[in-house]
């Protein structure tokens, strides 16, 4: 009888130990799951941060490219303006030289008309 009681106590103790072990295992698993979830969340946050950084870098590169394009366009416009002004200046100088060339006939006509007023003088 005593032996049976001892056996029962032993079995009960074993069951209790098993239950405690199972509970500890479940707790450990839960902790592991929580840690894994936290790690996943951290990894996701890191990925999101990296994506945001990449997007910011891309935006900065695009802005720099746009600025460079604008500068190039401005330089091209300035060059075009300079060339047009030089062409206009050249045209003006050629017209003035033709005008200054054209006056000699008029001056010669003046000189021809000048002898006529000379006799009365």
UniProtKB/TrEMBL annotation:
Membrane-spanning intervals of the chain: 6-27, 34-60, 66-92
Alphabetic keyword roster: Membrane, Transmembrane, Transmembrane helix
Compositional bias ranges of the Low complexity kind: 97-115
UniProt-annotated stretches for the region Disordered: 97-121
Protein name, per record: Uncharacterized protein
